[in-house]
From TrEMBL:
Lineage: Bacteria, Pseudomonadati, Bacteroidota, Bacteroidia, Marinilabiliales
Domain RCK C-terminal: 6-90
Protein name: RCK C-terminal domain-containing protein
MF-aspect GO terms: monoatomic cation transmembrane transporter activity
GO biological process, one term: potassium ion transport
Any coiled-coil regions, as ranges: none
Organism in which the protein naturally occurs: Prolixibacter bellariivorans
Amino acid sequence: MLIPKQNNILNEIPNLEIIALKVEPISPLISQSLAEVQFRRTCGVTLLALKRGEELHEHPPANTIFREGDIAYVLGKPEQVARAVELFAHAGAE
């Protein structure tokens, strides 16, 4: 059975957030693959899509390499999203 379209499905699951995170020039993610970063394991978030320039890549493959300026759309609980924000924000983090 198909559920009728909602105005915002996230209203139905209020404990989850979707945010967009930009890969900045100083990001430790640059030149790393999605497989190397392991968002779900390190932060608990799911990468839904990656925007590169004008192209949106839904469910990017594990061998996708992060580049400066990429926009990552991630899904997770607020505390998981906060960990992802930190990962994107820490230059030189190891």
